[in-house]
Write a structure and sequence with these properties.
Shape: globular
Number of helices: 3
Distance between the termini: 39 Å
Strand order of the largest sheet: 1-2-3-5-4
Number of strands: 5
Order of helices and strands: HEEEHHEE
Helix content: 10-25%
Bound molecules: guanosine-5'-monophosphate, zinc ion
Oligomer: single chain
């Protein structure tokens, strides 16, 4: 997709702080972090939403999730054999949910306590 921000990051046309890459995914720091660790994991291939990716290539969706897990370990959010301190994965779908970039991405958030439910009360 020629007009996609994350395709441009993938292609190196827009700079980003890469934290991980493998055959089919890349991970980079969010430009506006909402937690001490805030990394975005994307498939290199352009898909719009997580649902669209699940239909088009469920194996690739699995690789994206695996990459989030690798990022969480690398960033010290979990250690081998312990899911602690922990982290949160967020994938917004559509404008009402807050999706602003229409190349599927998973937010990996950690380094602070996360509230639940994830929206302000009232
Ligand atoms: P969404 O709102 O679609 O769930 O998430 C898009 C994310 O992309 C936001 O958290 C936003 O801060 C991040 N973002 C937007 N533009 C850029 C950019 O140019 N570089 C990086 N690294 N992140 C960006
Ligand atoms: Zn794209």
């Amino acid at each position: 997709m020629s007009d996609c921000l994350f395709c441009k990051i993938r292609d190196g046309q827009i700079p980003a702080k890469l934290v991980m890459r493998d055959d089919r995914c890349i991970a980079f720091e969010d430009i506006n972090p909402q937690a001490p660790t805030h990394v975005l994991v994307i498939p290199k291939e352009h898909h719009v939403t997580v649902g669209a990716l699940a239909v088009a290539d469920p194996g690739l969706l699995g690789e994206v999730v695996e990459a989030t897990s690798a990022v969480a370990r690398q960033e010290g959010l979990v250690s081998d054999g312990a899911d602690e301190p922990g982290y949160r994965l967020v994938t917004n779908t559509g404008p009402e949910a807050g999706q602003t970039v229409f190349h599927v991405h998973v937010h990996v958030l950690g380094g602070r306590g996360m509230g639940w439910p994830p929206w302000p009360a009232g």
